[in-house]
Specification:
alpha+beta; Dna Ligase, domain 1; six-stranded antiparallel β-barrel; 28 strands; Peptidase_S1_PA
């Protein structure tokens, strides 16, 4: 079997922890510049652990390479260590040594267990933390990405963009730099370590410690180019660039990562278009990212934030119109489509205001309780402005105060734009045909207004939110409800349910729980009018309904 980008992989003899003796000497292989594999000297200082807990091997590194790199550096993780030509393990773990030349190895026996059905034993030492190599992100975008990835204990590090042409002919072998990539395209994000072991079938072991310890994975495997190894007081680290995809990472366990050359991971493509209305500029970005359920929402969040921040190229607030479409397939539901259009305003950081619904939608698809779903693609279109596109409802009047079931009522609504003058628009509402005679209260509100709902909830008996929200029995219903949810730039006119403001019921059923659910979803009489500005505020009007 032939694999592109892989050197000839002859079986490597191994030396077990039981054969290792204090004072043994050997070499380790790694890359500290470009793609050239170099060696440094190692001395075995001892073996810790047990059969039940797993072992680790303490070594001391030395030689000119270690002097140049400032000790064992982040990115050397996975560097294979050979004793008398036999593979002992991978550079992996370090405690708070005052001397950076000391570190722990993960024995190769522990790493090979990643190919077995059972998980390898955990290690009880701290890994040499692997920095994320990031390109295509602005300074603000990188800071935002760091916050979003903090739960995964990942530390993004900006590196030069572009792929080195020299990597086109670089093959992987023990000691080569290897990349684990999460995002590729106009933005790139991944970690760099070192290949420890490989076989004729194209299987690879690397890192010697977990990347994120995600278990079974489906990430990009790349080759990599090292710019330099940077000495540091706490811990030296390599700075490099991710190269071309050469396979996929299939395991991320305590003992390291494992992968297969020549295979391609499943991906989610995302295309985002951003228009800066103020300057008349238009920018696009296209990326592919991995399908990890926990990573998709924060990655989408950071990618969209960075795209907007880069396009508008300024700090401060503003208004944005956001539309997106996500196509997916559920194991039970078949084809699924999530589509939304909404407007958002933020006075401090516009880029932060736009992502809430997109992140919620991806999280809903990836981690819903109903069924496993596969996202096929995500398309996002954003129009951004520095203006405050928000108007307040100041007054509402019905042109006819006395109506009959089925009548169309003209309702005048006064809006006050931010730093603007009052504007009046007229909307039509149809009285329900089954509306009983008596008083009928209408709520006129903006889609972004929640004050009316908060006031109602405060007057209700305490109860679980789940009992109030309309019940969703499957993913299709959940998505339909999300797609139809009120937008911030919509004017809503609806009948207030019975008991909410002296209103008469639309039908004979007087159910308080049903009435509360109606507040969230709206009645069958609900009318929605999209506007070109965000609407804040609400008002209530009461009409008298007479029998036909």
């Amino acid at each position: 079997m032939f694999f592109t980008g892989v050197a000839s992989a002859e079986p490597t003899p191994i030396i077990t922890v039981n054969e290792l003796k204090t004072g043994m000497h050997g070499i380790a292989k790694t890359v500290i510049k470009g793609a050239t594999i170099e060696t440094f000297d190692v001395e075995i200082l001892g073996v810790t652990g047990s059969e039940s807990e797993g072992h680790s091997i303490l070594i001391k590194a030395s030689g000119p390479l270690i002097e140049r790199s400032g000790g064992i550096a982040q990115g050397m993780s996975g560097s294979p260590v050979y004793i008398n030509g036999r593979l002992a393990g991978a550079v992996a773990y370090g405690k708070a040594f005052s001397d950076p030349n000391y570190c722990f190895l993960t024995p190769i026996e522990e790493m090979l267990k990643m190919f077995e059905p059972n998980d390898p034993r955990p290690s009880y030492f701290l890994p040499k933390n692997t920095s994320l190599m990031v390109s295509g992100f602005s300074k603000a975008g990188l800071e935002y990405l760091s916050k979003k990835l903090s739960p995964f204990d990942l530390q993004p590090l900006a590196v030069p963009t572009g792929q080195k042409e020299e990597l086109n002919n670089v093959t992987l072998e023990p000691g080569s730099s290897i990349g684990v990539e999460l995002v590729r395209g106009d933005m790139r994000l991944g970690a760099i370590g070192t290949v420890t072991w490989m076989d004729e079938a194209g299987r690879i072991l690397a890192f010697g410690h977990p990347f994120m310890k995600r278990g079974a994975t489906d990430y990009f495997m790349t080759n990599a180019w090292i710019f330099a190894s940077i000495p540091n007081v706490e811990s030296s680290y390599k700075v490099g660039a991710l190269g071309k995809s050469v396979g996929k990472i299939t395991q991320d366990r305590s003992a390291g990562i494992a992968g297969q050359l020549g295979e391609t991971p499943k991906i989610i493509p995302l295309f985002i278009s951003v228009t800066d209305i103020d300057r008349g500029l238009h920018k696009t970005a296209a990326v592919q990212f991995v399908t990890d359920e926990a990573l998709v929402p924060p990655l989408v969040d950071a990618i969209c934030y960075n795209s907007v921040e880069t396009a508008i190229d300024r700090a401060g607030g503003g208004t944005a119109r956001v539309s997106f479409r996500i196509t997916a397939r559920g194991e039970k539901s078949g084809e699924l489509t999530v589509t939304r259009e909404n407007m958002f305003y933020n006075p401090g950081d516009l880029a932060k205001a736009i992502n809430g619904e997109i992140v919620y939608a991806t999280d809903m698809l990836m981690r819903n309780k109903f069924e496993k779903t596969t996202i096929f693609d995500i398309n996002v279109d954003i129009e951004a402005s520095s203006e405050c596109g928000v108007s307040e409802i100041t007054s509402v009047r019905a042109q006819n105060a006395v109506v009959k079931p089925g009548d169309k009522v003209a309702i005048d609504v006064d809006f006050l734009p931010y730093r603007g003058t009052k504007i009046t628009k007229t909307f039509t509402f149809t009285v329900p045909k089954k509306q009983r005679s008596g008083k009928m209260s209408l709520i006129v509100r903006g889609g972004s207004s929640s004050a009316w709902l908060s006031a109602v909830l405060q007057n209700q008996q305490a109860g679980a939110v789940e009992e109030i929200m309309p019940e969703k029995k499957n993913l299709t219903d959940f998505i339909a409800g999300f797609n139809e949810f009120d937008a911030n730039n919509e004017l809503i006119i609806d009948v207030l349910p019975p008991g909410m403001s002296g209103a008469q019921p639309v039908d004979e059923e007087e159910n308080p729980l049903l009435a509360m659910r109606t507040l969230f979803k709206g009645t069958n009489a609900k009318k929605t009018y999209p506007m070109d500005f965000i609407i804040n505020g609400e008002a209530e009007i009461t009409l008298t309904v007479e029998d036909n």
